Amino acid sequence: MRLLDRIRSNSTGRLALKIGIGVVGGLVVAIGIVLIPFPGPGWAIVILGLAILAIEFVWAKNLLAFTKRHVQSWTHWVGRQSLGVRAVIGVLGVIFISAVVWTAVYLSMDINLVTWALDLVEKW
């Protein structure tokens, strides 16, 4: 018998597992959401949190399947496009990420990276 099945075999264990999975998964999702605007694996952490929640919650399993289906669909669509279209998508992605990084740095540290870079170039 698997460990989770043994825990679920009585009502107290079932409730404790549901609460524990909910708290841990919810915490991981919340951390991922906070990290989305910053460079790094924010979305991957959100998806990891959904995977944790999917252990006990059907809605999370369905949302995870929906996400996987749409990410795979997008990836396959981009892969079928010409090199020019993929380059445009890449450039737009870099512009978007740059805007997110600029906004995050400006709002959190009150530093305008464009002005800072221009000042650095002038001094050079």
Q: What are the salient characteristics of this protein?
A:
single chain; 124 residues; mainly alpha; 2 domains; 84% helix
Structure characterization notes:
The structure is a single chain. This protein is mostly helical and 124 residues long. The protein folds into two domains: 1-80, no CATH class; 81-124. It contains six helices and no strands. It has helices at 3-8, 11-35, 42-53, 58-80, 83-109, 113-123. The longest helix has 27 residues, at 83-109. The chain is elongated. The mean pLDDT is 90.
How many strand units? 0
Whole-angstrom Rg: 21 Å
Largest sheet: none
Beta content? under 5%
Short summary:
The protein has two domains: 1-80, no CATH class; 81-124. The protein is built from six helices and no strands. It has helices at 3-8, 11-35, 42-53, 58-80, 83-109, 113-123.
Structural topology:
Blueprint: H1 3-8, H2 11-35, H3 42-53, H4 58-80, H5 83-109, H6 113-123
Helix pairs in contact: 2-3, 3-4
